[in-house]
Amino acid sequence: MEQTVTIVVDNSANYAPQQTLKSKISCCGTGLHSGANVSMTLLPAPPNTGIVFRRTDADGNGLEIAAHVENVVDDRMCTTLGDGQGATIATVEHLMAALSGCGIDNLYVEVDGAELPIMDGSAAPFVFLIECAGIVEQDMPRRVIEILKPIRVEDEHRLAELSPGECFSVGFEIEFGSHAIGQQDMDVELVNGAFKGELSRARTFGFIEEVDQLRAAGLALGGSLDNAVVVSGDEVLNEDGLRYKDEFVRHKILDCVGDLYLAGAPIIGHFKASRSGHALNHTILRSMLADSESWRYTNVLRENDDLIEDFEEPLAVATA
Ligand SMILES: [Zn+2]
Fold first, then answer.
1. Which of 33, 251, 278, 282 is catalytic?
2. Which residue(s) pair with 268 in the sheet?
3. CB distance 211 to 237 below 8 Å
4. Does any domain span residue 320?
5. Domain count, the chain
6. 137 in a domain, yes or no?
7. Is the model more confident about 209 or about 29?
8. Residue 288 backbone class (left: φ over 0; alpha: ψ -120 to 50; beta: rest)
9. What is the average pLDDT across 28-32?
10. Ligand 1 center to residue 7 CA distance, Å?
11. 117 CA to middle of ligand 1, Å?
């Protein structure tokens, strides 16, 4: 069943409610770019909080920062949020994708370092954490961003477009010279648990030829075959191969889902992109938010119960 966009007339129980976690839950792991060990705790938050990150270590200075595109301070290789005073939280996009895909509106994310753990390079371990903690409905309708007219950002090589739609959907194409990737495209409607089944297990990827350059720039220090698909020339180096035949484009869509959740609310509309990355994803989001005629806040009717049922079967995940 597709979500139907409806203007709010009251707080009727037919509207999709906001959701948070039932209980807090933690994990630890390595930062992909910093290589540092970090622990992360997800905590339930009251209605209308949104997703809020907290740095709990001494260097983090108690930084509390909303997951919003206005707070993006770096988009080289990953999405980094900051408060403008120097403290930052990097690589938030895979957790943000899991929160979007699982319909979590309100959450505190505590982390004792400057980067979220990369886990296995996908969003599946975060979906698993969310399922373990459980999801609870809150007594407040969910507010979404309904796209009213197309917004497009493009250059010679890349394109990103947001346009009106009945639900949140993404169409994405990539093209790489490596035959391990080649040309891939996919269209997906993010409804009824599609995120978990179609996208959540797709891992981040990189090219072995670029590793030295990235490391010289202080990036990918924690990267390994345990948390990324590594491509060398036309070969995938991971012994077990790929999780999906087109894992690369699925991961690019996963990144989009995470980046677009930095709108501060779920988007109802279609996102179409060609060779987009974090920087362009943020640019189109800023363009959309700055154009008040291109969107409005609204509420959506409750979805059917497929999504909830989907969470009854825990996912087996090997974490790095
Ligand atoms: Zn990614």
1. 278
2. 146
3. no
4. no
5. 1
6. yes
7. 29
8. alpha
9. 93
10. 34
11. 12
Flag whether pLDDT at 179 surpasses 50.
yes
Q: What SS3 class is residue 191?
A: coil
DSSP secondary structure string for all residues of 227-277 = TSEEEETTEE--TT--SSTTHHHHHHHHHHHHHHGGGSS-EESEEEEES--
User: What would the two tokens of residue 239 be?
Assistant: 């012994």
CB 227 within 8 A of CB 129: no
Residue 295 belongs to some domain of the structure: yes
Which domain range does residue 121 map to? 5-310
Which amino acid, one-letter code, is at 277? G
Please indicate whether residue 68 is annotated as part of the active site. no
In a domain, 318, yes or no: no
CATH classification of the domain holding 151: 3.30.1700.10
Give 219's pLDDT tier (boundaries 50, 70, 90).
confident
CA 164 to chain centroid, in Å, comes to 21
Q: How far is the CA of 94 from the centre of ligand 1 (A)?
A: 6
Distance 93 CA to ligand 1 centre (A): 6
